[in-house]
Design a protein that fits this description.
By secondary structure, the protein is an alpha+beta fold. Among the domains are: 113 residues, Butyryl-CoA Dehydrogenase, subunit A, domain 2; 126 residues, no CATH class. It is globular, with a radius of gyration of 24 Å.
Length: 594
């Protein structure tokens, strides 16, 4: 595939796709945002790694992912002798992908020790950027990658000295022969999202703790180490009575006491094994404070929620890239599809979703880095940003991957193309680690228990107050009024009776996520000002479509899709202020009329 900057002329009958492109080099916006969030020194080191990853994602990894999905794992429950073995057999393509992600790019290790030329553990911001490039070709394997990384984090925070010495080094191995993969077995048949209804029991034995009970949805079911919740005998009901336990797959050279009953036949992530498990006296190690098991487990859950948001951003980007390549390379009605007004509208919507998603993911990564360094304000901010990102990006990715499929027409519906897989996988993010309703209620809990609404609004106010460029400040003033209205709405919701309070959270969570996104896009526009106003155009379009005007309202004002700036905005080339100012003028007039 020719680079988008040197693309061939559109042709009738052409069926171009993004395979063969370098997914990092084609994404100039990624590097602009990463430079802002990482700083020039870290970005210089990161850029070379991302270039390598982009080539892998557009070529080798994409091919392996297609093969692995066509040949899903299988469960072999019995040896020829009749002995119960419960082994998962993976296709060689899946094993090759494990070597790329865990080994070559050290994605489960980089938050814990120096790898890839970094003198210290790599920033979360870079980890998310690198993952974002690779996930565009492979979603499923990044569940095991993230859980292995997150389990190492939990043990570093709460494990005893023995657990840290014995397990963390193996969880952060880059040699596949020595690597321990991690998993989180949380969901139960009875509980589902109501984790406090867990029925798994932990009892003390001379050998330690033994677990009995069923876990209903266990991804990476072949993991070497499983983190799980169980209720010690005599402990109270609810989440407060749950302890946190580590279950090794093998104990003293023999398989531990649990059974894999079957593998799940899933809509997506078909290459990664998820199954149903019965703990039958499985020996387990207590992790941390027995009375704070649920709180400690939430460290892993929240890390996974941010990872889900990142993966949603990646799938949104791949869908957009495929739609753009297809529309620019295929002729219809005498013109390239990308020159037709409605197709430009579609591409603009997908571009906005793509850049908005990346913007909040990398900003959240930056906040995560500050929180890890001991910044208490950043830790409080991360408490609210995590559910907002997971709620909004995962839900929106379902729409954007569907629109990208439609932009390709009938080919998008055919399994030989990547779109169907993107669409299937995109639906998982809204289910894993809490459905959208559960996440929206977590936003409410963050308000009521942690005062996170005040932290969020302070962060938004600070970001908007820092806008110095005259055009960005005008756009920021429009956003500030929307933020003030949202602040009043949050107070009203908090004061409402419980049924009304909970019922309002679906729309309120989305509203707050969009305000956060608009503020980070304007921050990026500020960083770009003086050299280009491209990101200001993007930020203003996002403001118009997602924040200021009611959904579905017809707009006949200036827009890049209908002007001479469409290609420049799409290709991330310099754009003059003249492209943004008319849009800001029109939005100000619209605001006065409302």
């Amino acid at each position: 595939m020719t680079s988008m900057t040197g693309r061939p002329a559109a042709a009738y009958g052409a069926m171009p796709e993004a395979v063969g492109l370098n997914f990092s080099d084609e994404d100039r916006n990624l590097h602009a945002v990463l430079r802002l969030r990482l700083g020039a020194e870290h970005h210089e080191r990161a850029a070379a790694i991302l270039h390598e990853a982009g080539a892998v994602a557009g070529g080798e990894l994409d091919r392996l992912a297609r093969d692995a999905e066509r040949h899903p794992p299988r469960l072999e429950q019995y040896a020829p002798s009749g002995a119960r073995i419960d082994e998962i057999v993976y296709h060689p393509a899946y094993s090759a992908m494990e070597r790329i992600t865990f080994g070559r790019f050290a994605l489960a290790a980089m938050s814990h020790r120096p790898v890839l030329g970094f003198p210290a553990p790599a920033p979360h911001t870079f980890k998310y950027a690198l993952s974002y490039v690779l996930v565009q070709s492979e979603f499923g394997l990044f569940c095991p990658v993230n859980m292995t990384d997150s389990l190492a984090r939990v043990l570093r925070l709460f494990g005893d000295e023995r657990q840290q010495a014995l397990y963390v080094s193996r969880l952060t191995e880059t040699d596949p022969a020595r690597l321990y993969q991690g998993a989180m077995f949380l969901t139960e048949r009875a509980g589902g999202s109501d984790v406090g209804a867990s029925e798994t029991v932990a009892r003390r034995t001379p050998q330690g703790w033994a677990l009995s009970g069923d876990k209903w949805f266990c991804s990476n079911v072949s993991a070497d180490l499983m983190l799980t919740l169980a209720r010690p005998q005599g402990a109270p009901l609810g989440t407060k009575g749950l302890g946190l336990f580590l279950v090794p797959r093998v104990m003293d050279g023999r398989r531990n006491g649990y059974l894999i009953n079957r593998l799940k036949d899933k809509l997506g992530t078909r290459d990664m094994a998820s199954g149903e498990v019965t703990f039958d006296g499985a020996l387990a190690e207590q992790v941390g404070d027995l009375e704070r098991g649920f709180v400690q487990m939430m460290v892993m859950v929240n890390s996974s929620r941010l990872s889900n948001a990142m993966r949603a951003a990646a799938m949104t980007r791949r869908g957009y890239l495929e739609a753009l390549v297809s529309a620019r390379g295929r002729m219809a009605f005498g013109r390239p599809l990308a020159e037709l007004p409605l197709m430009r509208e579609t591409l603009t919507e997908l571009l906005l979703d793509t850049e908005a998603a990346l913007s909040v993911v990398l900003h959240a990564g930056q906040v995560y880095d500050r929180a890890d360094s001991g910044d208490s304000a950043a830790k409080a901010l991360l408490r609210i940003l995590t559910p907002l990102a997971k709620f909004s990006l995962c839900k929106r990715a379902r729409w954007s991957t569907g629109e990208a499929l439609e932009a390709r027409g009938g080919n998008g519906y055919i399994e030989e193309w990547v779109n169907a897989r993107l669409l299937r996988d995109a639906h998982l993010g809204s289910v894993w680690e809490g459905t959208s309703n559960i996440i929206a209620l977590d936003v409410l809990r963050a308000f009521e228990r942690d005062g996170a609404d005040a932290v969020l609004f302070a962060d938004l106010d600070e970001r908007l107050a820092a806008l110095a460029g005259p055009h960005a400040r005008r756009a920021g003033a429009l956003l500030s009024r929307a933020v003030a209205r949202a602040r009043r709405t949050v107070e009203q919701v908090k004061a409402a009776d419980n049924p009304e309070r909970e019922a309002a959270m679906w729309r309120l969570a989305e509203r707050l996520a969009r305000l956060w996104t608009a503020s980070t896009l304007l921050e990026e526009a500020e960083a770009e000002s003086g050299t280009s106003y491209r990101k200001l155009v993007v930020a203003c379009e996002y403001l118009r479509r997602r924040v200021l005007l009611p959904e579905g309202e017809v707009w006949l004002g200036p827009r890049p899709a209908a002007t001479g700036w469409f290609d420049a905005v799409t290709d991330s080339t310099p754009v003059p202020a003249a492209a943004a100012v008319p849009l800001i003028n029109a939005l100000e007039v619209e605001a006065l009329e409302r």
